[in-house]
Amino acid sequence: MQLAGRKLSTVESHLEQVExxxxxxxxKDRPLTEAEKSSMELMKSTxxxxxxxxxxxxxxxxxxxxxxxxxxxxxxxxxxxxxTQEAATLKEDQMAKKPDGTCRQEQGGMAEQNMSNWGDLxxxxxxxxxxxxxxxxxxxxxxxxDGVNVFKAAAExxxxxxxxxLDGQNAWSTKKGACDDVxxxxxxAYCTWEQNASKAVSDYEECxxxxxxxxxSTRKAxxxxxxxxxxxxxxxxxILCFIDVLIEKIGKDSDxxxxxxxxxxxxxxDTSKYELKNTGMPARSSPDLVGSVPADAPVCE
Length: 301
Known about the structure:
Helices cover about 75% and strands about 0% of the residues.
């Protein structure tokens, strides 16, 4: 037999049998047979010692299952919260390492100075002038003397200008390396943050998607189980009520018997203790830990 689309449990079927027995005993105004009385006493002890404790245990077990299913979803949110804090720390770190442009500005200034040094050296070299060799032999001594003076001056001035240019070039190269290192440090920190934040979001979406499906299927199963358990509990309580009537009231005043039977028929059993808790799905977050990426942001692999 089914009730509201649900198949009756064994206990509920027993309730129908016991209720029918009560009606039969009352209708025929007969006492219970010894076999019936023994059967009722056995059923009562079975309900009290096995069925009701089993219902209680089933409720406790289903509550644990429900708590675990919800806990797995709450763990997704907890991990997201921790990852969000970690991403915020990494973001502060990469922002603190972002170059303010001073280093490249100084590098540019050094490059301009070095171009000036190179121009000064080039102009000096191009400005060295040796007179054309004269045709007359008598004036060769003066020509040689003039050439010696030119090269003597160049030997003193050129190394100074060349050194100034080369020193400037080396200083620029060193500065460029330092600026490159600063930018590389920032880029590494930025990409560490971006990858960490992006992974935190994707991990959360994957976690919540998977665990929410498990939660939904678990909730449906345990709520169906809870409804059946409450029905069994109600049936058990009514059976015990009828058994007490059969054992204690049969043969006594008919008004008392009728009142006792009606009490069992209309017995309102409180099943609130078998309501499951934590059956609502935790709120799902919509994390955006990266946000809009600046146009000048490093490109991360």
